[in-house]
Specification:
mainly alpha, 0% strand
Length: 81
């Protein structure tokens, strides 16, 4: 796995989306958010500090909530169109 700008974290965590269209697509991509949740949990497992690990777990839960919201938006869009 390549390393990003900060050698502590995987490249996938450090990369930034390019342009508004990419960001817009990602907002509605449940797979993207679930993947981020998985990454956050993996990073949390690296930490030896229990508080840092707990925070990363909370971040992962937030990403899962974002995935659920994206799924709701997709469902609402299908029922309207």
């Amino acid at each position: 796995m390549g390393r990003g700008r900060n050698s502590t974290f995987p490249e996938s965590v450090c990369r930034q989306p390019k342009g508004p269209k990419v960001r817009s697509r990602r907002l509605d991509d449940t797979g993207y958010w679930y993947s981020r949740a998985e990454e956050a949990r993996a990073i949390g497992e690296i930490f030896t500090d229990p508080e840092a690990a707990r925070i990363m777990s909370e971040i992962a839960e937030g990403y899962e909530r974002l995935a659920e919201r994206a799924a709701e938006r997709a469902s609402n869009a299908k029922s309207r169109g």
